[in-house]
Inverse folding.
């Protein structure tokens, strides 16, 4: 089943990628994650896969494993989701649409989206991959590697090698910025700039 949801004013469908920047709040947690984000080249520090229904997402992140969590109210509010996500504090940067611009029939697109979601669900509980150079393993995942592995199984390579400078020896690392830069994408509106809901 293909689900749709709105996140900070942008529509997502099953399989689309929510891209975030670490940090965002002025407290110690936000500052810690801001520092972590500075270690990752580019503006995008983290990738989350939207699967649905509602605000259901899957990520490999701060809990040390692949998890599912729920966003509520159509607003990316990492403070509200921190308990589910292992205290990760981040701000939405935008949405990457890996299938947009591809010449796919509607049924083919739906099949790919369902396969992406099913693949990500099957990885829940697997550990976080600290060996960023090993993007081929399926025993453990880091955030952008999870998205990469789900899409490569469908013949779509998200390791575009664009968006960050060439750093010798890092060709196999799937940097979040590479995914953002290689996909059709849209920047999100900050939650502070959105009109009040209700």
């Amino acid at each position: 089943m293909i689900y749709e949801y709105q996140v900070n004013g942008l529509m997502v469908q099953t399989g689309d990628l929510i891209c975030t920047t670490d940090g965002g709040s002025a407290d110690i947690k936000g500052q810690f994650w801001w520092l972590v984000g500075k270690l990752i080249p580019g503006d995008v520090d983290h990738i989350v896969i939207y699967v649905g229904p509602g605000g259901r997402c899957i990520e490999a992140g701060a809990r040390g494993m692949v998890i599912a969590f729920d966003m509520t109210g159509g607003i990316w509010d990492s403070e509200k989701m921190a308990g589910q996500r292992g205290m990760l504090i981040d701000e939405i940067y935008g949405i990457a649409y890996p299938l947009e611009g591809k010449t796919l029939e509607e049924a083919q697109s739906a099949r790919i989206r369902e396969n992406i979601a099913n693949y990500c669900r099957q990885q829940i509980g697997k550990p976080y991959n600290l060996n960023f150079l090993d993007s081929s393993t399926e025993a453990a995942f880091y955030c952008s590697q999870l998205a990469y592995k789900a899409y490569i199984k469908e013949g779509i390579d998200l390791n575009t090698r664009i968006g960050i400078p060439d750093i010798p020896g890092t060709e196999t690392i799937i940097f979040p910025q590479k995914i953002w830069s290689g996909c059709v994408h849209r920047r999100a509106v900050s939650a502070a700039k959105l009109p009040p809901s209700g």
User: Anything to note?
Assistant: Residues 30-37, 194-198 have pLDDT under 50 and may be disordered. The radius of gyration is 16 Å.
